[in-house]
Structure formats: C-alpha cells, structure tokens
Write a structure and sequence with these properties.
The chain has 216 residues and is mainly β. The chain has 2 helices and 17 strands. α1 runs antiparallel to α2.
C-alpha cells in the first residue's frame, strides 16, 4: 500500500514543472520554525470528511481526509479527531487563493491503548505541485511537533499526513500554526493542487482496512 501511495503522489507531482534548487525543510519541535498566527476551529461533534477553520486573520482553512470521518474536537486552536479514534490520513489546506510560508503542527498520540498506532507517518506537501517528503518517526505517547518551511521563500498550499502504513494512525492533529499567509499569485495553482489531492485519494481508496480499538 505504501508503494502504491508514493507512486500516485509522484505521478501527480510529475505533471507540473517546479523550480529547481528549492529546498523544503521538515523540522521537529514546538518552535522549530517561526509562525505568526493560529488556525482556529469551532467545536463540532458531527463526523464529516471536512472540517473548516480559519486563521486569526480570517483566512479559511480546510481539514479533509480520504480515510476518516473528522470531528472538530474543541473550540479555539485547531483540534481534529477521527470518529474511530485514529487519524489514518489528514490534509490541511488554505482556501480562497491563499498560501503560507511556514507551519507547525502536533500529531498527538492516542491517549490510551488502541490497535494500529503509527510509529511513522508519510508527509507530502503542495507547492502547488504534490511533493512527497518522506517518512517521519512518531511516538505512540505524547506529542509529535513538526514544522515545514523552505530555505528560499517557498510557498505552500497544503500538507498531507498519512500513517505509514495507512492502516495505522495517530490520535489528533492539534495546535496548527502558520506563518507568512498570503495570496496565491497564479490562479492555475488551484487546479494543480486538486489534481494532487485526487492522486492521494485514489491511492487511499484502493485499500482501506478497518482498525479496531479498545480503551485501556
């Protein structure tokens, strides 16, 4: 499944030309890159494939999944849960023609005992072409903070995180912060990003295994 997902991601990315020499950096730690505003979400207990939030400056942000029904778990700084307890896949993306220059997020482990906890995740981003960064190790207890930024002013339109393998997952996405939010200069970038998301969705839907869980 992992090889299929990576192949689909790379196929989507190959359809768009991207600048040479750009370096995207994934860091770990709660303050590993500068950000300047939180992403906020209203509490909503109704499971859905889509949760919508906004930055403190009023830019809309979507949280979507091709594997899970999502829940906005609390008012305030974004806290996104899966209905079944584990997030196997999650994308956050800017709406209305906006992008960001940096982001930090927390993949918090499930609080308790559950079958299928991830020990690594696969991360991809949209710049606007879909790019696969690779796998990141995550703990099965406590917090896992990661940041994304570029060393040459790269712009990002969204980030996708998936369990590696996708039958595994983590408890919540929390504390999403972004920096350098601004308008996308080229209208065609939205079509590029949607194409990439379609590639991820097609790969995920080829095989979705139910994960059972139990409380301690």
């Amino acid at each position: 499944m992992r090889s299929l997902l990576i192949s689909m991601m790379m196929a989507g990315a190959a359809l768009v030309a991207t600048p040479a020499g750009a370096t995207v950096i994934i860091c770990d730690g709660a303050n590993c890159v500068n950000t300047d505003e939180n992403v906020l979400v209203d509490k909503n207990d109704t499971p859905s494939n889509l949760v919508t939030g906004s930055t403190q400056s009023g830019v809309n942000v979507n949280f979507t999944s091709v594997t899970d029904l999502l829940i906005g778990a609390a008012n305030g700084q974004a806290t996104i849960d899966a209905q079944d307890g584990l997030l196997n896949n999650l994308t956050f993306s800017m709406l209305d023609g906006y992008s960001f220059g940096s982001a930090i997020f927390n993949l918090e482990a499930y609080a308790g005992n559950i079958t299928g906890e991830a020990t690594s995740v696969l991360l991809a981003y949209y710049d606007p072409a879909l790019k696969t960064f690779g796998t990141l190790a995550v703990k099965t207890n406590g917090q896992n903070f990661f940041g994304i930024y570029g060393d040459a002013g790269e712009r990002f339109y969204g980030v996708t995180i998936s369990g590696d393998p996708v039958t595994t997952g983590w408890g919540q996405l929390k504390q999403l912060r972004v920096g350098g939010v601004g308008m996308i200069p080229e209208p065609a970038t939205w079509a590029m990003m949607i194409l990439g998301m379609g590639a991820v969705g097609a790969a995920m839907r080829r095989r979705k295994v139910r994960v059972n869980y139990s409380m301690a």
